[in-house]
Design a protein that fits this description.
This protein is mostly helical. 82% of the residues lie in helices and 0% in strands.
Length: 362
């Protein structure tokens, strides 16, 4: 049932991801401020995620998941009543704290219950289920937001409330003496091994590009191409389809596959394809988005499998890697607005560059 919680949380996460720049703009926030608002969201995640990973390794998983979901729900309740963009900084921090406790813990939980040698298949299946939300979220979210902003936030609150009920039910089914997971003696020397360092650095560069893309793409579609938010939702839904197919493909690939090599090659190819966005043709852009989703999904599916095999303190490793990759996100968010104000093309050039560097790192 935790898979359903993951789908519900990610549905809200991905729907708001594409809508947030438009939502902030509707409250009067300048483009450069939208990037800074994203920074405040990710900064909260960077601070909390390593701690969340350690708590996951040593405590009951629900002691991490429940507070995270409650904070996430509170943030969306507040969003529904905001009238001034200046207050967004505080709410984004609350949202960031909630998602920092939720998403890495769900990944670490899959690592903890997966048998040795089954990591690729497990994360292929998990990502396939999770990426269902990248289809539902953007399509439903963009449609509801286009119809009425308040309806979108009510939808998000209802989905998160259902998730909270599921978590509370699961927690009630756990025997008192089974509440605490087997405690792990966290070996920080293990976390300093090359595996964690390479994955952290590679993810750092890729997430700079991702941060640029997440802020600029909705604005590019609406302001430069002259289309409405539904086209953003359709594009993200197409990306979701690509991710579902790719998760199964990478998850079931032969055991002789070298994860880091295939991640690196795919990211280099994706960095080149990003430049085709300059065609300014929405059909070409959707096709590129689909192909790049399949290529870049190798990173999202194979790095957890690689770390799950190499590292004992899995929650702590995921917490550290998540914090480092979110540091890249912050940099991407911070510079996105400034680059976009100079030229809509600059963020895409930088996105391509950082994805290429990430590929070379792997």
């Amino acid at each position: 049932m935790l898979s359903f919680v993951s789908i519900f949380v990610n549905t809200v996460f991905f729907s708001f991801l594409i809508i947030f720049p438009l939502y902030a703009q509707s409250l009067g926030a300048p483009v450069y401020v939208i990037g800074l608002l994203a920074v405040s969201f990710v900064l909260a995640r960077i601070i909390i995620q390593p701690l969340a990973g350690i708590l996951f390794d040593t405590k009951n998983k629900y002691s991490v998941l429940l507070p995270g979901l409650i904070l996430y729900l509170i943030a969306f309740i507040i969003y529904n009543f905001l009238e001034y963009w200046q207050y967004l900084f505080v709410v984004r921090v609350i949202e960031g704290l909630g998602i920092a406790l939720l998403r890495p813990s769900l990944v670490a939980y899959i690592m903890a219950i997966t048998k040795e040698g089954e990591y690729r298949r497990a994360f292929g299946l998990y990502n396939s289920l999770s990426y269902t939300s990248t289809i539902i979220g953007p399509l439903v979210g963009s449609l509801l937001y286009t119809l009425n902003r308040e309806i979108f936030f009510l939808f998000a609150e209802a989905v998160l409330l259902v998730s909270l009920v599921i978590l509370l039910y699961l927690k009630s089914q756990v025997e008192v003496y089974d509440v605490y997971m087997e405690k792990i003696n966290i070996n920080f020397r293990n976390l300093k091994n090359p595996s964690v360092f390479i994955v952290s650095l590679g993810n750092f560069f890729e997430y700079i590009g991702l941060g640029l893309y997440q802020i600029v793409f909705p604005l590019f579609v609406v302001n430069v191409l002259g289309l409405n938010a539904v086209y953003v939702g359709i594009t993200y839904a197409i990306v979701g389809v690509g991710n579902i197919l790719a998760s199964q493909m990478w998850g079931n690939y032969g055991k002789s596959l070298h994860e880091l090599l295939i991640i690196g090659a795919n990211l280099v190819m994706a960095s080149i394809l990003i430049l085709l966005y300059f065609s300014r043709n929405i059909l070409v852009i959707m096709l590129v988005a689909l192909v790049n989703a399949i290529l870049i999904n190798a990173l999202y599916t194979l790095w957890p499998a690689y770390i799950g095999r190499k590292v004992t303190a899995k929650g702590s490793a995921v917490g550290i890697i998540s914090a480092v990759q979110d540091s890249g996100n912050i940099l991407g968010y911070a510079i996105s607005g400034y680059l976009y104000d100079v030229s809509y093309a600059l963020p895409f050039y930088f996105d391509s560059f950082f994805v290429f560097i990430s590929g070379i790192t792997y």
